[in-house]
Fold:
Amino acid sequence: MLSKTGCSSHQPAMESTDSRVQVFVSLLPQAYFAEKVGGEHVQVSVLIPPGADPHTYEPTPQQMKDLAKADLYLKVGTIEFEEMWMDRIVDVNPGMLVVDTSQSIDLIDQDPHIWLSPNLARQQAQSIYQALITIDAAHQPDYQRNLQAFQGEMDQLDQYIKEQLKNIKHRELLVFHPAWRYFCADYGLEEIAIEQEGKEPTVQEMVRIINDAREKGIRAVIVSPQHSTHQAEAIAGDIGAEIITLDPLARDYTANLRQAADELARALSRD
Structure:
């Protein structure tokens, strides 16, 4: 069942010369999913641009104006940006269909980073498909074909990651911003977070993290382009681990996770 916000039945917000379904998403990986399922029948816009932090980003006035023309908004589910802005987004376009793509997913401690699991990406794609055929039933066969192709792509990605990580020597990794829990859960890894509830560690917590990491023989410290790397670099230097930059918000989803698997396999195979 679709989870909707706004009117009980979808009505296009405004006449447009573009006949495609106007879709808005919060994050770049969601755009990848929506474009894969929607194909030529959708125009997808992303609110949070590359390099921006979803915890602090504010939509521009132009983005809010463009949202008034949207047919569909695809939520991640629980990211801070959506919790802060969704009411105002709906206010500018009450007739827009809003769908929570996490609605069929069991979250871990309300962690929103579900898109980093190819298995959960398949479920998000199913929600996107249901939303699109609600708005644009005429193109249902195309959406169904696209969905099946995307599910196959995710199956291949899942198998690739499993193959890359099956013989690694170390299964624990330090992560500055804890974005990779669902990925780790899928592939038998353990994410140990440096940042807790959005806060950098105190001096005492840094000492504890370093001691624990030494005891566990951790070989990799994961950082992202959206966050400071200073403390992660200090910890990596102290424990002799490698800093690996992985982007949880890259738009080319499949290529990004393949690269992440390659980088992790290399680092976690070190003696």
